[in-house]
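Archive entry: two folds, one per protein. Generate the first.
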Amino acid sequence: MTSDRGETDRLLAGQADRALGQGLHLAGVVQTNTPRPKSHHCDMDVQVLPDGPVIRISQDLGPNARGCALDPAALERAVQAVAPTVTERTDLLIVNKFGKHESEGRGFREIIAQALELGVPVIVGLNAANAAAFEDFTGGMATAVPCRREAVQEWLDTSLAARRSAA
């Protein structure tokens, strides 16, 4: 979790690249935001990991719109693309954000739960608005990791080592 706009997305995309470079089997999505001229919104695209399609999850509501630009149908397409990739062979699930949809029981929520049931480490971006719902969902079992490359890598190395030991 970070307060800097887009920082979590960049951190997770970098972590996905490093994990792929390590030969890990990834599932999930990472997000890229592209500023939209004359709008306070940006275009939000997610790439299905490891090498799946890029899906635009935002919709253009017009230059004066202030509401959420998320396209729920597009988000669900991303969820459906990720679902079959979470298996016992998955080393890491990355989800760009536990957002409003997840806090309401939709979005990537079931995939996160499935990964955890399989013992797959999960990295999830989070914003303060959904922190209470995330805490309820995880039952307090989540580990807050500082939004720094080294801290995330250390958490992942520790999680993978623990998973190997349990096997």
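Generate the second and append.
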Amino acid sequence: MNLHYLPGACSLAAHIVLEWIGAPYRAVQISDDSAEWPAHRRHDETTPVPMLEHGDFVLRENLAILGYLADLHPEARLFGDGSPRGRAEVMRWLGFLDGDVHKAFLPLLPASFFLARPLPLSAPAQGARRHLQACLARLDEQLAGRDWLVGARSIADPYLLVILRWAADLDIGLYGLEHLMRFARRMEDDPGVQAAIVAEEGVLA
């Protein structure tokens, strides 16, 4: 399998899951000047990552990739307890992370990630920060009394870590959100998480 990624992107979630399931894979970094870029654009005209190649099967979209990897390796038990309810619970939180939380970052990304100097926050960006803080509070409440988002380790947990790393980059603090802070520390101590971060970024933060 080949996972195509950008450092700092949500593709890190799939990278972590590949480490957790222990399947052979190759991580391919994509950038604007990458020789791999034209091939990606022939596959799809949307955001270039994440993309998973498994033989002649090419899969896009983070949720689809995470679910596919979990289904390929049920022994890793990353899709809940195997019951329809357990699977639905994982998908519920993945949907929240992808649909509500991930998209809330979009008004903040240009000024925070692509410009050399910060600019005053626009009204939409201010609203996005408030929405993100409310989402993080909800996630913190969900983690009360749990080590993992749905109680057991699942494909939702790496996606949550990506969200928390973005929040840290944007100075959206987790102060007072003790359950999220505890979760982030546990994830950062995980060998599979560390291997994926080192592979993408070269160092641990």
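Annotation attached to the second fold: Residues 52 and 64 are 10 Å apart (CA to CA). The two ends are 27 Å apart (CA to CA).
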